[in-house]
Design goal:
The complex is a heterodimer of chains A (about 240) and B (about 425). Chain A is an alpha+beta fold and about 240 residues long. Chain A contains three helices and 13 strands, in the order ββββββαβββββααββ. Chain A has a seven-stranded antiparallel beta sheet with strand order 7-8-13-12-9-10-11. A six-stranded mixed beta sheet of chain A has the order 5-3-2-1-4-6, covered by helices on one side. The radius of gyration of chain A is 18 Å and the shape is globular. With about 425 residues, chain B is an alpha+beta fold. Chain B has 15 helices and 13 strands. Chain B folds into three domains: about 90 residues, Non-ribosomal Peptide Synthetase Peptidyl Carrier Protein, Chain A (Orthogonal Bundle); about 170 residues, Peroxisomal Thiolase, Chain A, domain 1 (3-Layer(aba) Sandwich), CATH 3.40.47.10; about 140 residues, Thiolase/Chalcone synthase (Peroxisomal Thiolase, Chain A, domain 1). The longest helix of chain B has 23 residues. In chain B, a hairpin with a 5-residue loop joins β9 and β10. Classes of the chains: A alpha+beta (about 240), B alpha+beta (about 425).
Chain lengths: ~240, ~425
């Protein structure tokens, strides 16, 4: 049995993709992405949260670049413990981290448009998940009748920026949905972008840690591009943040 | 519907198709009315990327942030949204002189220009030898045949002065007529500043302003934009814009990589801007819209820190920088096409920043523009920093002025990128 501390839970279609930290030395961790037997996503009923400790028996895996962290398994079991956010972020600092864009995935980043998201060549990237501290963040919300899409811009320690990162962090997406739902219920036209970029931005900037985990999407066949995503954003949103400043 | 509206509609449709096609590179383009999301061609993430692509190409901020309920997510709906947004914010278009001339102030034209290069010619072989660069890397790899570098008696001020005096002579106006000077130099690190020092050197009148503008390789475009804005909102009538760089001294340090130092020459350019359009016997061109931005995703490709005793530390990732420069410049051209309403095939000259001629060749190929429409001072002078696209513009304007049947009105696109990665562009008509 191997043991993981769940660090990332991201929205992937109707289910979730998860990553956990595996201890490889006293002060070092590596990311492992437990993958269910069928497909890449765990069902919507996935019972664990970030920081949760899980155990699994590895199954034969053919991980292909850049998703070298993939590890097939028949299922996850609770290991009965949970670490808090501060401890989890500390562990993430001891896993894959980078202060600049080039070292995020060991590969050059490309963009197709001004202000657009970046992508890497799947064949040249050496990993598909990496953490980084950020100096600033701005959110952008696209909405239409059916769906709300959250994107973010980040400034890394190096001063380099990542634009229009799709936010796939399950808990941030839920937070946004909750905000919109609450606003609608109270008869107020929701203005999520302003809320995120003012009230929530202030909380993020004042937080004792500002840490993001950037992941790579699985490239579409023929496209030859793995787009970047914001897998996890720390601090994680708190329910009480919905109540006001 | 008038013909210009028809044209707008077709351009908007074409632009929408391009943005959708970029997300569907291996599929036939769907029909203009097909709903891209409902048909499953795009997921919501891909659709948002299309919206951002349109925003980037059109410079319509917040494009599609709120998609109207009931409206299909189709090529035609995108085109309709573009046209609706454009109608809300009318823009300056070549050929629409009345609208262009009155929105936000009167027209501003470049009436005269001049440039000066360092007096010493250094061959590619010499550069390779002096900078310890492998043979042929400068000549064949970068496409630089020689550099023009400053003689011992030359500096940013003397080169700037020569360029400015040439422009004033062409304009046939005395220096006292200049209402303000806008100047840019990355290599001039002294106080008084470059603008103040050049103001004195040119003996501009004491009530004429002296304004320094940054921006490194984009500095000239920023300076032209600042000068245009000041001329349109103030009572002043004549501005002088100068860019001048002497890299050979600033980069002549052992810690500066030879393959970086070996690309740079020394030079200056100057332009006389006037508030009233003068299309008389001269080939004066009007300054159209400017575009700019900062794409910090590529910020680490080039950086420099000035230390004590004018020492400099350079961070230079050549291949990454060249790739980023080509990509960004191509995008600037795309934005200028949409700002100006004119395709790049109609452009007479491209006055571009030139890290080196090879990068320009790659850009020309990628952007599908004929190389002969890009005046190429970097081939014999090297990268002149902020003055590069200015000297290129001077050469274009001179060609325009002297050729027997110049296109009327002329159309010139300017584009430059600099550390940051800041970028800027303008069209001139």
């Amino acid at each position: 049995m191997r043991e993981l501390i769940l660090s990332d839970i991201t929205v992937m279609g109707p289910g979730f993709c998860v990553i956990g930290l595996e201890r490889v030395a006293q002060d070092a961790f590596r990311s492992v992405r437990p993958v269910p037997r069928r497909g890449n996503a765990w069902p919507e009923t996935f019972p664990f949260g970030r920081g949760g400790m899980v155990r699994f028996i590895p199954a034969p895996t053919s991980a292909s670049p850049p998703h070298l962290e993939d590890q097939n398994t028949h299922g996850l079991l609770s290991a009965g413990g949970c670490v808090g956010e501060a401890e989890l972020v500390d562990m993430l600092h001891k896993a894959e981290v980078s202060t600049d864009l080039e070292k995020l995935f060991g590969s050059e980043l490309h963009t197709d448009t001004h202000g657009g998201n970046a992508w890497v060549d799947p064949g040249s990237a050496t990993r598909s998940i990496c953490g980084c501290e950020f100096k600033n963040i701005r959110f952008r919300v696209f909405h239409d009748a059916g769906e709300v899409t959250l994107r973010a811009r980040l400034v890394l320690q190096s001063g380099e920026t990542l634009n229009s990162l799709p936010v796939v962090d399950r808990d941030w997406r839920r937070f946004l949905s909750d905000f919109i739902h609450r606003s609608s219920e109270s008869g107020v036209s929701p203005a999520p972008e302003g809320f995120l970029n003012r009230s929530i931005w202030g909380k993020l900037m004042r937080a004792p840690w500002r840490f993001a985990r950037i992941g790579l999407a699985r490239g579409k066949p023929m496209e030859g591009k793995c787009w970047l995503m914001l897998d996890s954003l720390f601090p994680q949103p708190k329910t009480e943040w919905l109540s006001g400043p | 519907m008038g013909s210009s509206e028809n044209l707008d509609e077709s351009r908007a449709l074409e632009l929408s198709r391009q943005c959708v096609a970029s997300k569907l590179p291996f599929q036939a383009l769907p029909g203009d009315d097909d709903d891209l999301v409902e048909t499953g061609l795009l997921d919501s993430m891909g659709w948002v990327d299309v919206l951002i692509g349109v925003e980037s190409a059109t410079d319509i901020r917040g494009f599609g942030d709120t998609w109207p309920e009931g409206r299909a997510k189709s090529v035609r709906a995108l085109a309709d949204m573009i046209r609706e947004a454009r109608r809300e914010v009318p823009e300056e278009k070549p050929g629409q002189s009345s609208a262009a001339g009155t929105q936000g102030g009167p027209e501003v034209s470049i009436g005269a220009w001049g440039y000066a290069l360092g007096a010493v010619t250094v061959s590619a072989d010499q550069i390779e030898s002096e900078c310890a660069i492998p043979p042929h890397k400068i000549r064949d790899g970068a496409g630089i045949r020689s550099l023009q570098v400053a003689a011992d008696t030359e500096d940013e001020l003397t080169l700037g002065q020569r360029a400015a005096e040439a422009a004033l002579e062409m304009a046939e106006i005395p220096a006292e007529r200049i209402d303000f000077l806008v100047a840019t130099s990355t290599t001039f690190l002294n106080l008084p500043s470059f603008a103040a020092s050049l103001h004195s050197r040119l003996l501009l009148r004491e009530t004429s302003g002296a304004l320094d503008v940054g921006g490194a390789c984009v500095g000239l475009i920023y300076s032209l934009a600042v000068a245009k804005g000041l001329l349109r909102m103030a009572t002043e009538e004549v501005a002088l814009v100068v860019a001048s760089e002497v890299h050979s001294r600033r980069l002549n340090a052992p810690q500066v990589p030879g393959e970086f130092r070996g690309l740079f020459g020394d030079g200056a350019c100057a332009f006389v801007l006037t508030r009233a359009a003068d299309r008389g016997g001269r080939a004066a061109v009007r300054l159209g819209d400017f575009v700019w931005g900062c794409s910090a995703t590529f910020a680490s490709s080039l950086g420099a820190k000035w230390g004590e005793n004018a020492g400099v530390t350079v961070q230079f990732k050549g291949e990454q920088l060249a790739h980023a420069a080509v990509t960004q410049m191509d995008r600037i051209l795309e934005v200028l096409e949409n700002k100006s309403g004119r395709a790049r095939t109609e452009v007479g000259y491209f006055a571009l920043h030139q890290p080196n001629p090879r990068v320009v060749e790659i850009l020309a190929e990628k952007a599908k523009i004929p190389l002969e429409r890009i005046p190429l001072p970097s081939a014999t002078g090297g990268n002149l920093g902020s003055a590069t696209c200015g000297v290129s513009l001077c050469q274009a304007l001179t060609d325009l002025r002297t050729r027997p049947n110049p296109p009327q009105p002329p159309l010139i696109f300017m584009a430059a990128v600099g550390p940051g990665l800041i970028w800027g562009g303008a069209f001139l008509i």
